[in-house]
């Protein structure tokens, strides 16, 4: 009498995509545990052996807000749409600081995990996605200062706060959209890594962090709204501070541009990832 084993060895069949829009995003969900461990790894490395620890998360936007208040509010007399300038600046620094950190981490993330990419198969999209998720933890701790400032200045959110989750989602979508273009380019052209800090610095002054959108001339407003972070920052100020006259056109154009940038970035990333292991 012979017995037949009922157990079979599981295997993963890897096939190249046959079309431009064969994105296979379902594989990202199948490898969600890997995404979790990559995020956890980055968090542990970031705060390991740090004397102040999580205090750095609060200190950076707080000090930047104090400098902006002294330079732009006291010396340059930049208006703040009737909102006290310290909270006006800090509300913008929350999404901007997150975006800057997420982009600085996700841009070179593929090159940084080259050893992992060259050894095993997994959806490469997980690497920049993990780098974008990690700094989101910092926003939670930085928001404590914002809540204290709102109490200090006696500011109560209006019904616009209901839209805050949309802008909390739009900020990481913006960082991921840009990273999906920069990360593959960084694999092929290492100059991207050197240019990235300069790009982030210039981008901050091209966004309404230290000044209001109302200072931008009307004839340039549509072009200015193509800056995706302009809509995110304007949305944060409206949702949290109850800004009286928010620019909904700017926020709508920025959100639409982010969606187009994200879709194009996914297609570009999936197209370029075929050569990662060879070039990296």
Structure at a glance:
With 280 residues, the chain is an all-alpha fold. The protein has helices at 26-30, 32-47, 55-75, 85-106, 109-112, 114-117, 126-133, 136-152, 164-188, 191-205, 221-224, 228-241, 248-272, 276-279.
Structure report:
The chain is mostly helical. It has one domain (54-279). The chain is 66% helix and 0% strand. It has 14 helices and no strands. It has helices at 26-30, 32-47, 55-75, 85-106, 109-112, 114-117, 126-133, 136-152, 164-188, 191-205, 221-224, 228-241, 248-272, 276-279. Helix 4 runs antiparallel to helix 8 (136-152) and helix 4 (85-106) packs parallel to helix 9 (164-188). The longest helix has 25 residues, at 164-188. It is globular and about 55 Å long. Residues 1-7 have low confidence and may be disordered.
Rg, rounded, reads 22 Å
Tell me how many strands there are: 0
Helix-strand pattern, N to C? HHHHHHHHHHHHHH
The total of helices stands at: 14
Query: What is the first-to-last residue Cα distance?
Result: 55 Å
Globally, the shape reads globular
């Amino acid at each position: 009498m012979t017995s037949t084993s009922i157990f079979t060895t599981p295997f993963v069949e890897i096939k190249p995509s046959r079309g431009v829009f064969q994105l296979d995003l379902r594989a990202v969900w199948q490898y969600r545990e890997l995404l979790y461990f990559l995020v956890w790894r980055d968090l542990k490395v970031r705060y390991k052996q740090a004397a102040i620890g999580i205090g750095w998360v609060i200190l950076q936007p707080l000090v930047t807000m104090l400098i902006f208040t002294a330079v732009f509010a006291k010396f340059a007399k930049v208006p703040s749409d009737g909102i006290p300038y310290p909270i006006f600046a800090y509300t913008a620094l929350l999404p901007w600081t997150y975006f800057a950190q997420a982009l600085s981490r996700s841009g070179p993330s593929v090159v940084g995990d080259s050893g992992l990419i060259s050894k095993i198969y997994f959806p490469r999209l997980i690497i920049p996605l993990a780098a974008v998720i990690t700094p989101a933890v910092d926003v939670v701790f930085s928001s404590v200062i914002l809540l204290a400032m709102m109490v200090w200045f006696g500011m109560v959110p209006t019904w616009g706060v209901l839209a805050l989750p949309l802008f909390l989602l739009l900020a990481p979508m913006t960082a991921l959209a840009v990273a999906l273009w920069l990360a593959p380019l960084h694999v092929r052209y290492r100059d991207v890594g050197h240019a990235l800090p300069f790009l982030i610095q210039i981008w901050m002054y091209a966004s309404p962090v230290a000044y209001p959108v109302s200072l931008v001339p009307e004839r340039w407003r549509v072009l200015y709204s193509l800056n995706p972070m302009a809509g995110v920052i304007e949305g944060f100020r409206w949702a949290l501070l109850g800004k009286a006259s928010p620019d909904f056109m700017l926020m709508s154009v920025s959100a639409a541009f982010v969606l187009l940038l994200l879709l194009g970035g996914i297609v570009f990333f999936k197209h370029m990832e075929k050569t990662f292991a060879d070039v990296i």
